[in-house]
């Protein structure tokens, strides 16, 4: 009873402050950092096109399943350039999707699948391919890379997109021209 009398005696502003002490405690603690995106084992042995093609657009993982992002890597390559399997596997799909040539390879001994587009396939579904083997040629045109010709290289584990560059070992990613240093006596 005494408590009721105290509450009724306080001005309305004080009662609200007394009832909501957490609102004045400051901002909430920061959210824990997001876990790093999943990676694939570095089993690749070759770039899909060229020796060290320019990356025109990198991998940008979406924040949600249907969210915005870039679910692969765009590699600059001239039309007609050979497209090679980055690792050994079996051709999962080779054909046209939405007017573009697509080759998809299930990588041997993994639950991973790589895709290359726009590519004119030179393989068929079910073919086994070795790392570095030609699976098609870059098709001209397409609006994916604007005015540049490119290959969109994707990597999937189930329905989850991963960074395809994670397939390549660091020595292949960072390789540049060889430089010989002078021998010091």
Automatic annotation (TrEMBL):
Entries under CDD domains matching the protein: M23_peptidase (cd12797)
Name of a matching Pfam family: Peptidase_M23
Gene3D superfamilies assigned: Glucose Permease (Domain IIA) (2.70.70.10)
Entry superkingdom: Bacteria
Record flagged with keyword rRNA-binding: no
Keywords in alphabetical order: Signal
InterPro entries with a match to the protein in the record: Cell_wall_metabolism_enzyme, Dup_hybrid_motif, M23ase_b-sheet_dom
Domain M23ase beta-sheet core: 69-164
Keyword DNA repair included in the entry's annotation: no
Residues annotated as signal peptide: 1-25
Record's protein name: M23 family metallopeptidase
Species of provenance: Streptomyces musisoli
